[in-house]
Design a protein that fits this description.
alpha+beta; Beta-Lactamase; Heat Shock Protein 90; five-stranded antiparallel beta sheet; 16 helices; about 20% strand; disordered N terminus
Length: about 650
């Protein structure tokens, strides 16, 4: 009876599940979708406001950069040697005005009388707040508004450029004026000392009225190609009060909207209350997502506005298209989902079968096996996701174990190699120490008897001075060889005090020691790179390492070449340090030779010179300071030795 009752129960559950699924789809989901779209529209508008605010930030920074750069250049000119040495600074002012792209540049005494001007016909403008501050010894840069008469004193061309006929503009504050003839000027001034010792001022300025280079540069910085969707356009404007004095907004095709005015609403918020406008606004002939902020002069008064914005129409169209697409998508999904829900039950078992098959493949050794079940958001889908995640972790752990095994094998091999080398060094050390001791005794006897013989001969020793000198040199050479053997056998007895050492100075001090060898071998040495850290290593020992590496590089280039010593700050395993690389353009080494170069008594010198202890001693000195030395080489392409030492505090 239970088996006969099962089908009706299955159908009943299916129908109930279908009813439960359709209710949210046809009722709750549309409500949620509508609310989401409303919220999305608000967020979309907020995003546009955020973008235009960021665009305004770029424009503001550019204007601030112009102010800062102009001030720095004018102040630097006033402090320059050329200015102080110029009996007649007029030619210098003309040259610097062109270089700094200023409209005027002049020097005046404390009373405002001109000393030198550029252009030649310019006359100083009346004193404003900035000039008064400079007369008190404080350099400054800022925005100042010049009357047309003041501009005419500086240059008739500037006065003419400042005149902008006003264009009747809807929604603007009514006015009886027909033109704007004042000038907005970036003014920079610095105190200077005149040639006769009197105090004076150096003043430079840039007129922003109809300065199309300035406004187009802002527009190019803010609205680079591809930064706005197709159909939109970015604009930038500089206002003197509410009048556009420099803009790339078009009134007609090819005609800039100079002389048009901002709406009364924007004027009140920005100029009246000193607030930033971030909203849609009607600009000349269309609506733009706009950002306006006030411009303040040197007296702290709001004298104009900086504006950036982009055409709103493409974004509004995109919003409408998105809403239509979402609505149509919802209808399409609803139409498709109804037959899909009728088959949902069969989809429950398929993921379970895939999971079972995946587990079987993993047990057979295929750690890359995955269920392949697309995440559906239900319990079965989450179980499949968790299973795939666990298999990912297992595969990662297996790869890590394999990697750790390889690293462990490498470390064991390296440790074994070091133990073998240590045993060799211990044996060699005993032998060399004994040999050095035995050699030192007869050498001391020979040296003593040689000195005694020189005393016995008295003045007659001068006839054999050359022979005595040669014997002294050979005895000294034997002593040096013995000392190197002892240093290798007992490095701890020859270790100097570790001191803070600047590697740049240590490397530089090596150059005189090897200059004769470089000259004789037709090898050039170049030092490059920068290092700001110091290392805790005996300066002499570091020089010994560097000289050894440079000498080896010279011997590797019998036909001449170049050695490059590169210094840089480098961290290893979180430890700050200094890296010194010595590269040559010699013939390089094969892999077998490269693996043995740090072994004691191994040498690559074809002429039989050298003891084969140089690089081994270098490694000992570096290891003692907690550093590392390594080599990289390619046959025919040269060799690079890299020395790393930990930095000291």
């Amino acid at each position: 009876m239970a088996e006969r009752a099962a089908p009706p129960r299955a159908r009943s559950v299916r129908h109930r599940l279908l009813a439960i699924a359709l209710l949210p789809t046809l009722v709750i989901l549309p409500l949620l979708l509508g609310g989401t779209m409303l919220r999305w529209q608000g967020k979309f508008d907020d995003l546009l406001a955020t973008k235009v605010n960021s665009d305004l930030t770029v424009a503001r920074q550019y204007l601030a950069r112009i102010l800062e750069t102009t001030g720095e250049r004018v102040e630097a000119l006033g402090r320059s040697v050329d200015f102080a040495a110029a009996a007649d600074p007029a030619p210098l002012l003309e040259e610097q005005r062109a270089e700094m792209a200023l409209d005027f540049l002049y020097v005046a005494d404390a009373a405002g009388r001109p000393v030198a001007v550029s252009p030649a016909e310019a006359r100083p403008a009346p004193k404003g707040p900035l000039i008064e501050a400079v007369l008190q010894g404080r350099a400054g840069t800022g925005i100042e508004i010049f009357a047309n008469a003041d501009l005419a004193l500086l240059s008739p061309d500037l006065a003419a450029r400042a005149r902008v006929p006003l264009v009747p503009t809807p929604n603007a504050v009514p006015t009886d004026r027909t033109e704007e003839d004042r000038g907005m000027v970036v003014l920079s001034a610095a105190p200077v000392t005149l040639a006769d010792g009197r105090p004076g001022i150096l003043v430079g300025g840039l007129l922003l009225n109809q300065n199309l280079v300035f406004i187009d540069t802002i527009n190019d910085l803010v609205y680079r190609a591809g930064s706005l969707p197709e159909g939109s356009a970015g604009t930038a404007t500089l206002f003197l009060e509410d009048v556009r004095i420099s803009t790339n907004v078009r009134l007609f095709e090819g005609t800039r909207a100079l002389g048009t005015r901002v709406s009364a609403e924007v004027r009140e918020q920005v100029l009246g209350r000193g607030e930033t406008w971030l909203d849609s606004a009607f600009v000349v002939n269309d609506r733009y997502i706009s950002a306006y902020e006030p411009i303040v002069d040197t007296a702290g008064q709001r004298v104009g506005m900086l504006y950036v914005g982009f055409l709103e129409a493409p974004f509004a169209a995109a919003k409408r298209t998105t809403l239509w697409l979402v609505g149509l998508g919802f209808l399409a999904v609803t139409a498709v989902s109804i037959p899909v829900f009728l088959k949902w039950a069969s989809g429950v078992f398929q993921p379970l079968e895939k999971m079972s098959g995946t587990i079987a493949r993993v047990e057979a050794g295929d750690l890359g096996a995955r269920t392949g079940v697309q995440s559906r958001g239900d319990e079965v889908g989450r179980v499949a996701d968790h299973l795939d995640h666990l298999l990912d972790l297992i595969q990662e752990r297996d790869a890590e174990l394999r990697q750790w095994n390889e690293e462990l094998n490498a470390r064991v091999e390296e440790t074994t190699r070091k133990l073998i080398v240590s045993e060799k060094l211990a044996t060699i050390g005993e032998i060399t120490a004994a040999a050095a001791h035995e050699i030192n005794n007869p050498v001391a006897v020979i040296q003593g008897n040689l000195d005694l013989l020189r005393e016995i001969m008295g003045d007659g020793a001068a006839r054999a001075a050359t022979e005595f000198r040669l014997m002294d040199e050979q005895i000294q050479r034997i002593s040096q060889i013995v000392n190197r053997l002892l240093q290798f056998a007992r490095p701890e007895e020859y270790a100097g005090w570790a001191t803070r050492t600047d590697p740049r100075d240590a490397v530089a001090d090596c150059l005189p020691l090897v200059r004769h060898l470089l000259t004789r071998s037709d090898v050039t040495l170049r030092q490059d790179g920068q290092s700001s850290r110091q290392v805790l290593m005996n300066r002499t020992e570091l020089q010994q390492v560097m000289v050894n590496l440079i000498v080896n590089a010279v011997h590797a280039m019998p036909g001449g070449g170049e050695i490059v010593v590169w210094l840089s700050d480098a961290d290893r395993n979180g430890v700050p340090g200094v890296e010194i690389a010595v590269s040559d353009t010699g013939g390089g080494m094969d892999a077998e030779t490269l693996s043995r170069i740090f072994e004691p008594f191994f040498t690559t010198r074809a002429d039989g010179g050298g003891t084969g202890l140089g690089l081994s001693i270098c490694r000992t000195l570096v290891d003692r300071q907690g550093g590392d030395i390594s080599a990289a080489s390619t046959e025919g392409q040269g060799t690079t030795f890299t020395l790393w030492l930990p930095a000291t505090d």
